[in-house]
Amino acid sequence: MTARRILALLLAVAVLVAPAFLTSGYVLFQLTSTAIYAIAILGLDIVTGYTGQVSLGHGAFYAIGAYATAILMANFDWPFWATLPVAGGASALVGFLIGFPALRLSGPYLALVTLALATAVPQILRAKALEAWTGGVQGIVVTPPSAPSFLPLSQDQYLYLCTIVVAFVLYLLADNMLRGRQRRAMIAIRDHALAAEAAGIDIARVKTRAFAVSAFFTGIAGALSAIVVQFVAPDSFSVTLSIALFVGLVVGGAASLPGTVIGALFVQFIPNIAEAANKSAPGVVYGALLVASLYLMPSGGAGALRHLLHRIRSHRPPTTETAKQGATIHVE
Amino acid sequence: MSRLLEVTGLHAGYGAGEVLHGLDFAVEAGGVTALLGANGAGKTTTLRAICGMLQRRGEIRFEGARIDAFATEDIARRGIAHVPDGRGTFTDLTVEENLRLGAYVRRDAAVAGDVAHMLDLFPVLRERLRQQAGTLSGGEQQMLAIARALLLRPKLLLLDEPSFGLAPLVVQQMFGVLARIRAESRIGILLVEQNAALAIDFADQACILESGRIALAGVAASIGADEQVRRVYLGY
Amino acid sequence: MNGFLHQVFSGLATGGVYASLALSLVMVYRATHLLNFAQGEMATFSTYIALTLTQAHVPYWIAFAITVLLSFALGIALERLLLRRMTHHTALAAVGVTIGLLLIFNALSGWLFGYTVKEFPSPFEGGGNGAVLGGLMSAHELGMVGVTLAVLAVVYAFFRFTPLGLAMRAAAGNPESSRLVGIRVGWMLALGWGLAAALGAVGGIMVAPVVFLDPNMMSGVLLYAFAGALLGGVDNPAGAVVGGFAVGVIENLGGAYVVGTDLKLTMALVIIVAVLVLRPAGLFGRVVVARV
Q1: How far is it, in rounded angstroms, from Cα C51 to Cα B50?
Q2: CB atoms < 10 A from the CB of B97, how many?
Q3: Domain ranges of chain C
Q4: Homologous superfamily in CATH for domain B5-79+154-234
Q5: Scanning every residue of chain C, which has its alpha carbon at the shortest distance from the alpha carbon of B145?
Q6: A227 to chain C nearest CA, in Å?
Q7: What's the pLDDT tens digit per position in A252-270?
Q8: Is B218 left (phi over 0), alpha (psi -120 to 50) or beta?
Q9: What ipTM was estimated for this complex?
């Protein structure tokens, strides 16, 4: 590790931790929420951005994670950190189970099935049969963990820092996983499945594992949301959430880690800003930017930023080679 | 008298690779030009380039006017009918519907008469009018494809490997019909054939393609008579 | 027994709406190989236009006709202006574009027409519920079935017997050969989108008096329509119609006797998954060799 890298890392940590002490109240809550969305979108990115399996139902995994944590904490008095593996594991399991039939479904059909799943989730959560567990329409109130006594942190600060820590770990994990052969295999499957198969890649294995890992990440995000929002209810996990994650992915830039952060910022702040102008504006902005991204900025915000950085660094437009490296999703 | 089809400096290709490297040839009104050569020489690519089905540059003149920037459907509307390799049958539609589509762009009253004439030329189609075109045999689909192309009342007919995969007797029948059509109308024909002997017999002019370039061109009969040329380029 | 029959006939009535929308989805799919996730929202938007016209005292059937024509034009415009530029799809782009349209139309409906739930007039009022067929259907439900069947018959006749319909079928099945006979394939695709949008409008206008009009009216209907289209075979128009009616009946019977009304949408999910896993081509569709 070069000195430069260590410095960069320290800087990153400082930037991430700073808001806990520089902001408070609602703004801090929004930043916490952004971090959670980033993790959720990162999960979606793994399965959709990298492996090309379009999911319009990731809200379901988010809900599983959230409810797992809520139920364990509220009904069984588990400490939060203990619920994380369960939340992630449960989501991963469901993701794995969905991954198998998903193998047989090509792009739009998988999107349709996941959309149907996302639409069904609130109904299932409201079901009378499961009310004893889920709390039905009322949902479950969650008491978040407080900072340990030796840390002079407020509730908001503690929750923010916990979220950042989890996010940091998950992003490191993702970065490790999404490089080299693994990454190339996933992208090959996404873009040239026949060639990938001919090259000996076990498509089924990569795809189902991608689904499971993807669900794991988004499930963890859901678990975090349970303690940050301090409440879970069926209506929090409607189709809107799944679509928001999808839009965040595309606008931020698929197959890109920085893209997930951009997407999260987009999902967190744009609706609020837009809503101030007009109640319907968020929908229009989402839809318009989604379509615009697909046509004009196929690599999303991340791609645009990368392009910009190249130009600044080299004072000339990037060569086709670097442009090819930068561009991830091609609307050919 | 300007030629029916005049191609000058035709370059064409699929994506990054160029397949045709500057072709020059022509088809006279009422004449038959054969495009010969081995597999992969670029014969099918040439026909597709003329019809605007892939990236091309160069000059393509039809009845004196340039068509090299036109879209496929507009080229068809100008009177160029293309029987593609693989027949291009509308497999889900009936034989009758396939025929009707051949005359889709025509508004004149002679369509019904032309269809009847096609059924005379290709009696086997009359029996199968209501049948789904995809269920026809290879030879029957070839007949259907030619009939469909002729229903456009084209001035130029592009034929891509009409004998491909057909039994010799069927091929003979088909060329018999083609000869009859040629006698009846002043239609010009650009014929791509791997079966060189057949093509040379039928054509006035012949061009031999090799790796995207014209290696030899001239009167078909002369080329056919030249043993050395036949052995080197045409394999017989 | 009476209750059962009532559910069946009621299901047929809503099934007609699903059938219309399913046919829209199939038409778009056959032409452009897209699953149009926005079909429902477009239909809702059209229904709002119809409402605005009737509120401006335009006679019902004239408002109906105008709305259908405007929707037709809208569908064509969308295909020509937006979708033709996306000639190659990645799965992400293909899904993303119609999801984007879904969001835009949904928001437009809310913005231009408000979010309060509105009543929509029916031309079939004849003495309240259960007025006809010995109490098995309401007048409007019977009217729904009638209008749906009439419209579907017209569409069928169009495709079977007219040159333009033939050209559209040709363009959907074999675009390259279609160009070779001079068909302007791009416009045929646009027409497909136009017809689909028009059909959607009919469906929306028919169902609005029953479920009341708000920007999210069609979100459930769309899923049922997809289920119907898949059940019948997503490349088979006739199958889609049968599938739509079937789903309508299944929804009602299932909701009444099996899962209760709360879990009705979950049934749509189950149907969709079941079809795709067990028999992806649907009941009447063609099994196509899947490209990985």
Answers
A1: 52
A2: 18
A3: 2-278
A4: P-loop containing nucleotide triphosphate hydrolases (3.40.50.300)
A5: C177
A6: 28
A7: 988 889 999 999 999 999 8
A8: left
A9: 0.92
